[in-house]
């Protein structure tokens, strides 16, 4: 604050705001400098009445003087429950000004995702993904900013914005460098807590410099403003009293001086004592008294306007206040004259919403709080009916229904359930939750009650698994939830238990419900779900004979419906985990498809079965080296989720498994890119979840395969890749990958302990496939010097245990591809194209003793292993987490490992390099 007087063009409320106005001018200049300029974000904080709205008005003036497009919106205290209210105010006018075809062209693939949230497209039948909708709204701004450059967005009273808008604003702030748009936000300090406060803090943290906090006017500035308003003859004592009465609040000062003018009060010391009485009528009780002086009709009109909050048209207010049209028009004029209501500024683009708005949010709050409680509740009920009759839909009426007292009204329950469905369809589950929780208070009739609980669980499933569990248990404990709906509820409950890391309880829940059903499709579906949860449980098997029972059940399945197809997939995945015949695994999976494709109802976005089952199918193909089929499924999942706008956990998993496909193909750089994107998305969902482990484990494994040991360790440390491990299976096994990481950084003892723990866990589950749980080769490498006998036994066991990992090599599969700059996981970097000598000593158990060398083989010679009866035919090496394509094929030869990898040549064994190098050359274990 460098000057007392404002610039000539500034309004009275901009006294001592020169620094703030200068910051706005610089930001506008930067925006207009070039179309490729990055976006800007300014945040101004201040208590009520300190001139935030006036500062935004000055921002509009500056921006329009530079030829900018300016769109604005304002949060409302009574409108925070309306999802997307503020972002609709901001973007909807521009989109509605286009032809529908033009709007669809500008939004592209995001039209069907973001369009319903913006109110320009009808919502579909499915529940929209909130994160996808948020991303779509960010994309809408990015595309519109290219059309309407230079674009300035003004958001007033952001502390009163709905939570959906704040999610969008936080995402926009973090990605503002991607678009050329200036965003200016004002808010009060405090006011909100919880998620809304966190989102506002995220916006402030992304701003261009710290948020500017506005301060009250100084006595000198108040004196200057007083004389500029009343005349230079206003004496010093009067001016000091104006400052003392208003505490330097610009809004109060302007309002007080307007009343001084209206009352023709002489601005002299002798009349200064009357200022306090005048000031009391500016807000609170004084404003209410002034409103009552205008008459009962004007008071009712103001109350009705405050109830509506937005879209205040004279006709709508007249219906709510039960006033005749001519009386309503007269009241509107009285309230405009009294500076309580005003016509919306045409420059804001919101004139289509209504004919009126409150002059200031403080006035709107004071009027709303003055309505007697019983009358306020009754008026909200009437407003809900009027809004519905006007054709605005149940969601628009829901804001008012939430304020109505419970009265055992089944019709109101139905309206709230319909509103919840509309909210879910546009990606606002929190708004749906509020509607359904209010419906439960009515309460619903007994036959309806469990259905409302089930719908409430659907609304909270993505955000509050623990709450979902209690709701579904309550619903299942009531009569009325029968047939397919009950089966769906049991499945959803088991999913919520899984996401809440209560997998054993999920297994028991499904098992108990399946036991009470008669044989048929419903029972078979729950049996399949039971086997699915048991199959991904990382602890000891719940049922010792699970695999036998699953095999017996799957043997009767022909794939005639989705329950049978699910059982076939589960049987194939179980066979894979136990190391059974690869061809049989593929045959089981193929029988679960319809003409080589996923059956209707088993798509990636279908909710009847969930993503887990389809990932089992894709992974079964991936780890039996049918990589073409696996990658088709992975990429299909990615496209499905992107098209549907699902950008939360489902999309994170899709990227993770696309990365796994690249890893097994040997495309390590592409694998790393996909896995980093997966981890970025997983961060938004939450840490320590199974999907988070999938992204982190595979990224660490890929970095090790590229030889980037330090980077792999940094990722593990940053993202908590350490015990305790999740209760669900992660592929590849995280204990094995972490053990390999510990060996690579020189922590041999810790690595051995981790690998031995992996061995015990795998044995408890009967998981004998060394591609999926690749502990043995790394453990043998670590024990080569300290316990060579055990190391040799492990090596022979790995050699004897067939591995599917390199089966594709004999079918023309690709080899491992190293990029320039990639280094072996252990060993010094070397130039591409250089090879080690072509002969190595391979230690194998011979008749003469455990450590004798049977013979020497030329480099590249790979004997064809004999298939084990009942076992999975695996050609090539065992172990390795991306095993198949990732480290199979014609590997780059690895030099002798340095000591920090704890791999040295066993002096008693006639080998020219380390065990790791020898086995890697022979295709047995990863380097």
TrEMBL record:
InterPro entries per UniProt: AAA_16, P-loop_NTPase, TPR-like_helical_dom_sf, TPR_rpt
Record's compositionally biased regions (Gly residues): 878-887
Domain named Orc1-like AAA ATPase: residues: 16-184
Region (Disordered): 796-900
Alphabetized GO MF terms: adenylate cyclase activity; ATP binding
Keywords: ATP-binding, Nucleotide-binding
Signal peptide residues on this chain, from the entry's feature table: none
Keyword Nucleotide-binding applies: yes
Composition bias, Low complexity: 835-847
Basic residues bias: start-end ranges: 808-820, 848-867
GO cellular component annotations of the record: cytoplasm
Protein name: Orc1-like AAA ATPase domain-containing protein
Lineage, opening ranks: Bacteria, Bacillati, Actinomycetota, Actinomycetes, Kitasatosporales
């Amino acid at each position: 604050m460098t000057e007392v007087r404002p610039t000539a063009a500034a309004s009275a409320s901009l006294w001592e705001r020169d620094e703030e106005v200068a910051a706005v001018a610089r930001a506008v200049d930067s925006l207009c400098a070039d179309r490729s300029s990055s976006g800007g974000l300014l945040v101004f904080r201040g208590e009520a009445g300190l001139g935030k709205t006036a500062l935004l008005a000055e921002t509009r003036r500056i921006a329009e003087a530079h030829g900018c497009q300016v769109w604005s919106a304002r949060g409302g205290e009574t409108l925070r429950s309306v999802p997307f209210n503020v972002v609709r105010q901001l973007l909807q006018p521009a989109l509605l000004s286009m032809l529908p075809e033009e709007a669809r062209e500008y939004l592209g693939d995001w039209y069907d995702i973001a369009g319903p949230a913006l109110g320009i497209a009808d919502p579909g039948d499915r529940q929209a993904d909130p994160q996808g909708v948020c991303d779509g709204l960010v994309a809408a701004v990015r595309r519109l900013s290219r059309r309407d450059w230079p674009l300035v967005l003004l958001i007033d009273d952001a502390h009163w914005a709905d939570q959906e808008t704040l999610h969008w604003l936080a995402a926009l702030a973090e990605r503002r460098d991607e678009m050329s748009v200036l965003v200016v936000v004002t808010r009060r300090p405090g006011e909100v807590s919880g998620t809304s406060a966190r989102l506002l803090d995220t916006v402030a943290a992304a701003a261009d410099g710290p948020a500017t906090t506005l301060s009250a006017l100084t006595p000198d500035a108040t004196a200057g403003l007083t004389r500029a308003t009343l005349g230079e003859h206003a004496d010093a004592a009067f001016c000091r009293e104006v400052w003392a009465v208003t505490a330097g609040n610009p809004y109060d000062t302007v309002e007080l001086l307007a009343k001084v003018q209206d009352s023709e009060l002489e601005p002299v010391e002798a009349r200064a004592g009357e200022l306090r009485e005048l000031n009391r009528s500016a807000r609170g009780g004084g404003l209410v008294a002034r409103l009552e002086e205008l008459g009962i009709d004007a008071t009712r009109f103001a109350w009705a306007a405050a109830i509506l909050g937005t879209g205040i048209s004279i006709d709508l207010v007249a219906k709510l206040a039960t006033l005749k049209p001519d009386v309503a028009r007269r009241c509107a004029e009285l309230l405009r004259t009294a500076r309580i209501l005003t016509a919306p500024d045409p420059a804001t683009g919101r004139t289509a919403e209504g004919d009126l708005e409150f002059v200031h949010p403080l006035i709107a709050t004071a009027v709303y709080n003055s309505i007697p409680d019983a009358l306020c509740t009754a008026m909200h009920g009437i407003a809900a009916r009027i809004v519905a009759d006007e054709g605005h839909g149940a969601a628009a009426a829901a804001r008012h229904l939430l304020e109505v007292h419970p009265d055992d009204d089944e019709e109101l329950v139905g309206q709230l359930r319909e509103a919840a469905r509309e909210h879910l369809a546009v990606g606002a589950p929190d708004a749906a939750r509020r509607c359904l929780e209010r419906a439960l208070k009515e309460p619903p009739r007994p036959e309806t009650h469990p259905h409302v609980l089930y719908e409430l669980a659907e609304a909270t499933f993505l955000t509050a698994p623990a709450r979902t569990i209690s709701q579904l248990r309550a619903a299942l404990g009531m009569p009325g939830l029968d047939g397919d709906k009950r089966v769906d509820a049991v499945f959803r409950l088991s999913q919520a238990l899984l996401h809440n890391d209560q997998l054993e309880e999920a297994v028991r829940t499904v098992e108990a419900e399946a036991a009470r059903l008669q044989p048929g499709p419903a029972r078979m579906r729950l049996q399949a779900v039971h086997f699915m949860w048991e199959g991904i449980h990382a602890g000891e098997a719940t049922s010792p004979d699970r695999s036998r029972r699953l095999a017996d059940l799957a043997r009767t399945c022909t794939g005639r419906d989705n329950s049978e197809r699910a059982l076939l997939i589960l049987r194939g995945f179980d066979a894979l985990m136990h190391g059974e015949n690869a061809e049989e695994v593929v045959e089981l999976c193929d029988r679960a498809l319809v003409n080589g494709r996923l059956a209707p109802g088993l798509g990636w976005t279908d909710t009847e079965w969930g993503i887990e089952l389809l990932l089992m199918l894709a992974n079964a193909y991936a780890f039996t080296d049918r990589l073409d089929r696996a990658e088709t499924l992975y990429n299909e999942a990615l496209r499905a989720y992107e098209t549907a706008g699902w950008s939360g956990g489902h999309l994170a998993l899709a990227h993770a498994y696309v990365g796994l496909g690249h890893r097994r193909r040997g495309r390590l750089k592409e694998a790393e890119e996909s896995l980093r994107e997966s981890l970025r998305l997983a961060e938004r969902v939450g840490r320590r979840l199974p999907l988070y482990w999938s992204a982190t484990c595979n990224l660490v494994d890929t970095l090790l395969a590229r030889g980037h040991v330090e980077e792999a360790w940094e990722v593990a440390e940053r993202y908590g890749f350490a015990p305790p491990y999740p209760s669900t299976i992660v592929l590849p096994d995280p204990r094995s990958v972490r053990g390999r990481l510990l060996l690579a950084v020189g922590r041999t003892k810790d690595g051995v302990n981790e690998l031995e723990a992996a061995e015990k866990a795998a044995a408890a589950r009967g998981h004998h496939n060394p591609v999926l749980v690749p502990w043995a080769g790394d453990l043998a490498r670590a024990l080569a010097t300290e316990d060579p006998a055990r190391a040799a036994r492990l090596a022979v066991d790995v050699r004897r245990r067939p591995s599917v990992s390199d089966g594709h090599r004999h079918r023309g599969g690709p080899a491992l591809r190293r990029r320039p700059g990639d280094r072996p996981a252990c060993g010094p970097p070397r130039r591409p194209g250089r090879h080690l000598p072509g002969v190595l000593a391979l230690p194998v158990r011979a008749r003469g003793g455990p450590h004798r060398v049977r013979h020497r083989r030329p480099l590249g010679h790979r004997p064809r292993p004999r298939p084990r009866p009942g076992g999975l035919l695996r050609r090539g090496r065992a172990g390795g987490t991306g095993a198949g394509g990732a480290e199979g094929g014609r590997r780059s030869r690895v030099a002798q490992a340095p000591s920090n990898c704890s791999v040295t040549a066993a002096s008693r064994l006639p080998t020219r390099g380390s065990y790791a190098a020898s086995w890697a050359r022979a295709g047995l274990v990863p380097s």
